[in-house]
Design a protein that fits this description.
224 residues; mainly alpha; 13 helices; 3% strand; globular
């Protein structure tokens, strides 16, 4: 029993992945961050609010698309060209928010998969939603299992936004993003692994609960 539990909770990759983040790519990514924050922060004093009516979400989207967001996206694309895994995720997240639904998988999934394969956890939840058949493949499971070994490399890049974090207790309004800490995304990884590994599902769900009190995992455990 103990050995089975160890297998369930340990990553298949005993050693960290060979990931090297290009310094120039990292600079481009970090230049994009304040612009992304501006695009995602409603401005109650904006004159654009009056022009676009009283809908704050419409105001946010219009201002973001017209001003800071295009510059941020251009910087992210340059960073992605150099293989930056976090920029890959943020560009994919942009696509999932602003492209028509029919176009999201083709645009976002290659970026999400490339980021996840470099051991970055946040793409895992988006892949589960948008990227079949990869989201049920052995390669997806192996990528999830390798994530714990990469925690040190990616610690400085958190918190990160997501459309929805099942392990979070927060409930954003409208199109507002949920922001997760590294441990929140680690809990999501174990929750997703529980879906892919029925034999060790209970142990994996319990691990998600232990990490951040994952409400979705706790609900499933109490239903058993």
């Amino acid at each position: 029993m103990a050995s089975a539990l160890f297998i369930a909770l340990a990553p298949l990759a005993a050693n960290a992945l060979e990931v090297s983040i290009d310094p120039h790519a990292d600079l481009l990514y970090r230049q994009a961050l304040p612009l992304l924050e501006q695009a995602d922060t409603p401005d109650d004093n904006s004159t654009l609010r009056t022009a676009m009516g009283v809908d704050p979400e419409l105001n946010r989207q219009g201002r973001a698309m017209a001003h800071t967001l295009p510059t941020a996206v251009a910087l992210l694309k340059k960073s992605v060209e150099l293989g930056h895994p976090v920029a890959q995720y943020r560009l994919a997240l942009y696509y999932t928010n602003y492209l028509p639904a029919a176009q999201i998988a083709d645009a976002a999934c290659p970026l999400l998969e490339a980021s996840l394969k470099q051991g970055f956890a946040p793409p895992a939840t988006a892949i589960a939603t948008w990227c079949p058949p990869y989201n049920a493949s052995p390669a997806y499971r192996e990528a999830l299992e390798a994530i714990p070994s990469m925690a040190t490399l990616y610690a400085p890049y958190y918190p990160q936004p997501a459309v929805r974090l099942a392990c979070s207790r927060s409930h954003p309004q409208g199109l507002q993003m949920q922001w997760g800490r590294q441990r929140d995304y680690q809990a999501e990884v174990y929750r997703l692994l529980g879906d892919l590994d029925p034999q060790h599902r209970q142990a994996l769900l319990q691990k998600a609960v232990d990490i951040n009190g994952c409400v979705a995992a706790q609900h499933r455990l109490t239903k058993r």
